[in-house]
Design brief:
Bound molecules: zinc ion
Largest sheet: none
Strand content: under 5%
Helix content: 40-55%
Order of helices and strands: HHHH
Shape: globular
Number of strands: 0
Length: 118
């Protein structure tokens, strides 16, 4: 039997924020329907952002319910996969804490703090 440590915190750093970009010129998306740089139609991005927002709303409702922490975490993760926002990351950290996933929650919180320091 190998003497592996009881609990190894996830060594992989959390993936970089899923920022939305213009598919044509890669300009950072700023909640507009048309890319200000190249004029591309960005309504598809808007739909993704709206879907992520809906998932965050559902996650927040599940967290508020108190007994649906696992559901809240799944929703917060799904939202983050579509579109990562500071609010979404805070929601994810809260959901992780409520599920007892302290190591990942700490990693997400550190990410939020470093992002808000600019
Ligand atoms: Zn563009």
């Amino acid at each position: 039997m190998s003497d592996q440590p009881a609990r190894t915190p996830p060594s992989a750093t959390p993936s970089a924020a899923t920022a939305l970009h213009c598919p044509t010129c890669r300009a950072a998306w700023r909640s507009v329907a048309t890319c200000p740089r190249c004029g591309a139609d960005l309504t598809a991005l808007m739909r993704v952002a709206v879907r992520a927002w809906e998932l965050r709303q559902a996650a927040r409702a599940a967290l508020a319910a108190g007994s649906r922490a696992a559901e809240a975490l799944a929703l917060a993760r799904a939202a983050g996969q579509l579109h990562t926002t500071p609010h979404g990351q805070r929601l994810l950290a809260l959901a992780l804490l409520m599920n007892g996933q302290m190591a990942e929650a700490a990693a997400v919180i550190a990410q939020v703090l470093s992002a808000s320091r600019h």
